[in-house]
Amino acid sequence: MSSPPPAFVQIAAERCSGCGRCVAACRQRIFTLEPRGRRKLAVMINRKPCDRCKRCIENCPTGALFTAPS
């Protein structure tokens, strides 16, 4: 039986408050905040170094981050 595909963090932009907690929590520095209209939103700048620790998810106060199969 094969193992499930690895999960990667996804961002639900409509739920992101732009607080930057994911940016601060990520040891691999895969997030940044970018201006989107009148707000700033978290965006992933590189998924590859993600070690799937889920610290970003645990620190997101709005639940905008979640895991999904790659």
Q: Would you give an account of this structure?
A:
14% of the residues lie in helices and 31% in strands. It is of the alpha+beta class and 70 residues long. It has a single domain (16-65), classed as 2-Layer Sandwich (Alpha-Beta Plaits), CATH 3.30.70.20. The model has no long low-confidence stretch (mean pLDDT 89).
Total individual domains? 1
Average residue pLDDT: 89
Order of helices and strands: EHEEHE
Which regions contain 5 or more consecutive residues with pLDDT less than 50?
A: none
Strand proportion: 25-35%
Measured as a percent range, the helix fraction is 10-25%
Query: Using only CA atoms, what is the Rg?
Result: 12 Å
Counting DSSP E segments of at least 2 residues, the number of strands comes to 4
Distance between the termini: 19 Å
CATH architecture: 2-Layer Sandwich
**Structural class, please?**
alpha+beta
Query: Which fold name fills CATH's third level, the topology?
Result: Alpha-Beta Plaits
Biggest beta sheet attributes: 2 strands, antiparallel
Silhouette: globular
Q: How are the strands of the largest sheet arranged?
A: 1-4
Which class in CATH terms? Alpha Beta
Number of alpha- plus pi-helical segments: 2
